């Protein structure tokens, strides 16, 4: 098993970024001496707000990459809800466009949508689903583990003085700008799911979680494009030990 840390300059973010790259050992990859004709599937991962790409070190990400013969890349997406911030960096643009280009210049990664998948946990699952729905030309499938999806509800709670998913009212305004009209916007994954008909989704909801009903509702809207599984693991565990292995195996058709 192998893992490297990538640090590079992002012009979209106007600064450097860090990403963890998990992949099979070199003797398991089909790499020629002079070229890299074989391009590998890649799963792009989002951590939850309040975390970092380091969180994935506590999961079986490395083992999943080896067992399935794929690359798994997790970048730091900071405190942005995986969104093009109204007052801050354009993280959705970075993850969907720039990061892929940087990584493909350095690693044997496929640029075919059918071999590019996206996933996340917690608010990272929200970002992953949003990216998959908005960019089917980039991602063909998504795994969303113990997701937190209803940003309209999050914003309403914050307006009443609560700190939710590591955000308060002002920080949510920095992300979304107008937090009074999330419903029906491009930041509403339920509305996006109603309008978009592409992609396939593996959605999990932790039994008894405060956000399980949101995962069930999203699955209902996606209809036969989505698979739902109830689990005993929550995003707060920072583990996804069992869930992640099943989800990646589903992506790879195993």
UniProtKB/TrEMBL annotation:
SUPFAM superfamilies assigned to the protein according to its UniProt record, in alphabetical order: alpha/beta-Hydrolases
Protein name, as recorded: Uncharacterized protein conserved in bacteria
Protein species of origin: Roseburia inulinivorans
